[in-house]
Structures are given as C-alpha cells and as structure tokens.
Design goal:
about 180 residues, mainly alpha, about 5% strand, single chain, two-stranded antiparallel ribbon
C-alpha cells in the first residue's frame, strides 16, 4: 500500500499479485481510489442516481438494524436541522451529513465508505450544478417529510420500511 495525497491509500501492483513493483496490475483491475473529483467528472447526474438507488435503500435497511442510540440521536438532530436551515448551502451540508450518517449507522465499514463516496460524487455532480436562491428551502419542501419518514423507520428498527422510505425519497428527487 502507498498513500497518495488526495487519492487515498492504493495497493501497489506487487500487492495484487503482479510480477513486481512497477508492473501493471492484473488485467481488469482498476484503481479503487480514483478520487471523488475524477470520479465526479466521469459521472452524470443520472448515473449518480442509479448508483444511489442501488446502494442507499440497502444501507438504510442495515442502519435500522444496527444504529446505536447515539447515532439515532445524531441523525435526529440532522433531520431537525434541515427544517431550520437558513440557506440552501446549510441544507445541502446537513443533507449530505445525514446520508453519510445513515451509512455509518449501517454498521458495515465497506458500505459506509461506498455511501460516503457516492454521496460526495452526488454533491459534486448534482448540487454544484443547481442555481439556488440565497434563502433556504421552503417550509413545505418535500425532502423534509421524506427524511423524517426515514428517521421514523430507523427509530422503529424497521428494516423494510427504512428501505422503502429511502427508496421513496430517492425517487422523489430523481432528476
């Protein structure tokens, strides 16, 4: 392994079974650490949403089973904070933190990191392209109730409902 600034930890070719240092990794192997900016540059909003639809409902279902009381409390604060956001920037930050926190609450480190990467790409690919007013979301913004439904399912430890609530949320924001 080697650390590369801004790119994370990478496996050297020799660690992957190639003949030696400096040789190409086995055919078909791709560097898993492309970096969010490089990945976002190659990802369309549609592709980001397809990935989220494949990943996030499952992660939410696991979070319903594995979230600690502290994680549920933190998620509750994020959901409440989204309703109080005074700007779209503040809302977007809380929204991103909520989705990352659901990933952490899944209890699965790999899925949590996949969620974090998908979320970072989503923020770059989707939110950065939107032109938002200086004010925050309107009081009737649908995502408020959708996040609250996800939260309620997590608190009830209802895996199926958490999956369904996350899926419904993603379908409603699909572009």
């Amino acid at each position: 392994r080697e650390r590369r600034g801004g790119r994370g930890t990478c496996l050297q070719a020799s660690a992957l079974g190639a003949g030696g240092v400096g040789e190409e990794p086995p055919r078909g192997w791709r560097n898993a650490s492309l970096g969010v900016a490089a990945l976002a540059a190659r990802t369309s909003p549609h592709s980001a949403m397809v990935a989220r639809m494949a990943l996030e409902p499952q992660v939410a279902g696991l979070a319903a089973l594995h979230a600690t009381p502290q994680q549920l409390t933190a998620l509750g604060y994020l959901v409440a904070g989204m309703r109080e956001a005074q700007s779209w920037g503040e809302y977007e930050m809380l929204d991103a933190r909520f989705h990352d926190a659901v990933g952490e609450a899944s209890g699965n480190v790999l899925l949590s990191e996949m969620q974090r990467m998908a979320n970072a790409v989503r923020v770059s690919v989707v939110w950065s392209r939107l032109d938002r007013p200086d004010t925050g979301p309107p009081l009737n913004y649908p995502s408020f109730a959708e996040h609250e439904a996800i939260m309620a399912a997590l608190e009830r430890r209802d895996r199926t409902e958490a999956q369904n609530a996350m899926r419904a949320h993603l379908k409603s924001i699909r572009m």
